[in-house]
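Is this the right way to post structure tokens for a design question? Let me know if I should format differently. Anyway, here goes:
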């Protein structure tokens, strides 16, 4: 009779690390998709208060009248919070594993410099992003940290908050942190999903740079325009 040999401890550790990297990458790309959609909506601010407020209202009414007003929005927020939790937990699990680059990364002779950034850089930028998220929600979603919050006027809420230059600077710094995080995360995430190899590494490098730059500049555009008086 043949028997299946039990998996060796090193094989189990390697399998766990591979699965965790994929979870980290998948959750990261899911959040990136939301960030891009959120940026697209934010750019409607340049079309004026009427357009922006109509956009914000359409999000609150998403799914109505089949679902109650705001029900789908709450579901999306719960899904995003869950995705963020998966991302953080996967990172913490990987920290406890022996250091080993993804197989796709090892197949590349010379990974780009941003793919080998120290873990401390990703942790620092992740911390900045977390603090920014708390500030953003407190100001423009809950209104707890806003001097004159009006639920039915999201445009004015945004302008009032961002015209205070320390807040605008905080948003720009957060945008830079997101850019750095994405620069490394996009490349290593695609490597973890097996999308980086000798034939694709150049393209992936271009994609990583482009995504990081577009998101960082896009996140900075509205706060800079508000503090300079372009948006009124």
């Amino acid at each position: 009779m043949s028997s299946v040999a039990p998996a060796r401890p090193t094989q189990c550790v390697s399998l766990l690390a591979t699965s965790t990297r994929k979870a980290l990458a998948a959750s990261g790309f899911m959040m990136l998709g939301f960030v891009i959609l959120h940026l697209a909506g934010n750019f409607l601010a340049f079309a004026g208060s009427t357009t922006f407020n109509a956009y914000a209202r359409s999000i609150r009414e998403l799914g109505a009248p089949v679902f109650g007003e705001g029900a789908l929005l709450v579901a999306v927020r719960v899904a995003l919070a869950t995705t963020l939790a998966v991302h953080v937990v996967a990172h913490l699990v990987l920290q406890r594993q022996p250091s080993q680059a993804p197989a796709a990364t090892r197949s590349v002779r010379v990974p780009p410099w941003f793919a080998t950034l120290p873990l401390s850089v990703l942790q620092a930028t992740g911390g900045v992003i977390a603090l920014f998220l708390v500030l953003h929600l407190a100001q423009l979603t809950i209104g707890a940290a806003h001097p004159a919050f009006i639920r039915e006027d999201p445009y004015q809420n945004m302008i009032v908050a961002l015209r205070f230059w320390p807040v605008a600077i905080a948003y720009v710094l957060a945008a830079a942190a997101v850019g750095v995080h994405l620069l490394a995360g996009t490349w290593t995430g695609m490597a973890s999903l097996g999308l980086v190899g000798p034939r694709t590494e150049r393209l992936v490098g271009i994609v990583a740079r482009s995504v990081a730059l577009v998101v960082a500049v896009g996140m900075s555009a509205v706060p800079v325009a508000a503090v300079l008086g372009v948006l009124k």
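Format looks fine. Someone answered above. Worth noting: The mean pLDDT is 88. Helices lie at 9-42, 49-60, 71-95, 103-106, 119-142, 154-162, 165-192, 201-227.
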